[in-house]
Give the backbone structure.
Amino acid sequence: MTGTGVPEGTRGHRAEGEARAPVRCALVTVTDSRTVQTDVSGPLMARLVTEAGHTVTDRALLPNAEVRVREHVAALLGRADVDAVLLSGGTGLGSRDRTVEAVRPLLEKELPGFGELFRLLSFQEQVGTAAILSRAVAGGAKGKLVVSMPGSAAAVELALTRILLPELRHALRELSR
């Protein structure tokens, strides 16, 4: 353990991950209530990803339609120019919120820590006990990272700045081993 509270092995893996080229990200907004003109989370994801030094290779806005979302993500997983698929929206308890059901069957390995940490931080910093209503999920599929987060701007910013962007290259390094 070092003075940072991070085990040395993890620091070494992070350092190796940081040596990777910028991560090529496909961004997907899942919504029934927004259009390309009124979508806030898609542009926010794009800004945060590029400010962190990564590349946006694809952007889409899709309706809350489970089959359509699954087919789109499956197609993205087959692309050579995509390292990570980041989805926002469709993670709540509403009858139309089906992003988790669309994505989960594609995952080869789920990362429960993402959802757990996201809900903890949401509880502590944003929405209190309403954090239990989030079904944020992440995992690996075909050597790529897939992350599904709630669609509010605050949730997207929290997920990306506090959890995903600091670990993005490290996660991809682990997926490539």
